[in-house]
Amino acid sequence: MLEVASAYLSDTDAADVLALLCEEIGEPLEHGPAARRYALSGDRRALHGTVL
């Protein structure tokens, strides 16, 4: 997810980009931002409620 929505993007800007990616690969929209938050923080709590 960081390859598509780099760390320097705001959460709002990243959500727009990740929505397109999730739609293209068939993932639910909430998985993209959750995976990005996990990649940025390393905190598994960012994935709470998602199944990747």
Please state the CA-atom Rg, rounded to the nearest Å.
Answer: 10 Å
* H/E topology pattern: HH
Q: What general outline do the C-alpha atoms trace? A: globular
DSSP strand tally:
0
Number of DSSP helical runs: 2
The average pLDDT value, as a whole number, equals: 89
Low-confidence stretches: none
Which descriptors would you attach to this protein?
0% strand, mainly alpha, 2 helices, globular, 50% helix, 52 residues
Question: Could you give a quick summary of the protein structure above?
Answer:
With 52 residues, the protein is an all-alpha fold. It has 2 helices and no strands.
Record the SSE blueprint.
Elements: H1 11-25, H2 31-41
Structure overview:
This protein is mainly alpha-helical and 52 residues long. The chain has helices spanning 11-25, 31-41. The chain is globular. It starts with 10 loop residues before the first helix and ends in an 11-residue tail after the last helix.
